[in-house]
Specification:
The protein has 219 residues and is an all-alpha fold. The protein has 10 helices and no strands. The protein has helices at residues 3-12, 17-25, 59-66, 74-82, 84-94, 115-126, 131-141, 151-157, 164-190, 198-212. The relative contact order is 0.19.
């Protein structure tokens, strides 16, 4: 098991993990209790990976990203919705599998130079979008394949090489996919809907646990 896998198994095995997931997604809470806006990230407007819009970024996707406390700059948002950037991203999204879990994907789908990597760099390097925002936007479009990775999660897990995507991919596939199976079991015990990907279960559990330790970074 790679070091990232050991770290994740430790965090996901914490006693608080199930309760954290339930609080985040509002499971078992009364209608009047406050919930995390991020609980709507994958489900807003039916999700960003619906077949009819899987290969283009919509206004609903831009709002969904805001539920994770980030905002795509207005000029970039307009270029995505009405300009050439949207067309470029659509072309790349077309070449990124929409129905494959990260654990089932080949490494080259996530490697440098892949359509997913090129989409991330197109947003960051060519259009100055913050790396966290770029990652969340792509995670909205490919929730089973691409993870949310923000500053809180990076603080908890570090900066694995050659990339977080590839390191997480290796960790999920190691030891007969034991980490992936742990995530699915955690999702089931917590009562989180199956429409929430294993990657998001991982992200939320890590983020909630690390945040509770005094790392009060914005979502």
């Amino acid at each position: 098991m790679p070091p990232l896998g050991h770290r994740l198994k430790e965090l996901l095995g914490a006693e608080r993990a199930v309760g954290d997931l339930r609080r985040y997604f509002g499971i078992g809470m009364s209608p009047g209790e406050a919930t995390f806006t991020g609980s709507r990230f994958e489900h807003l407007a039916g999700g960003g990976d619906r077949p009819e819009i899987a290969d283009r970024i919509t206004a609903e996707d831009l709002v969904a990203v805001q539920t994770l406390s980030v905002t795509v700059p207005a000029s970039v948002a307009l270029d995505i919705l009405e300009g050439s950037l949207g067309a470029q991203l659509s072309g790349l999204l077309h070449d990124i599998p929409a129905d494959v879990d990260m654990v089932d994907a080949e490494a080259d789908v996530l490697a440098g130079g892949s359509p997913a990597d090129r989409a991330w760099h197109l947003l960051c390097a060519q259009h100055g979008v913050d790396w966290v925002i770029a990652g969340k936007l792509l995670a909205r479009k490919r929730p089973q394949l691409l993870p949310v990775y923000d500053k809180v999660v990076r603080c908890a897990l570090g900066r694995p090489r050659p990339s977080f995507w590839l390191a997480l991919h290796a960790a999920l596939r190691a030891d007969d996919r034991s980490l992936h199976r742990q995530l699915l079991a955690l999702r089931q015990v917590a009562g989180v809907p199956q429409t929430v990907s294993a990657l998001r279960v991982c992200d939320v559990a890590v983020w909630m646990g690390h945040r509770s330790e005094g790392h009060a970074c914005p979502r």
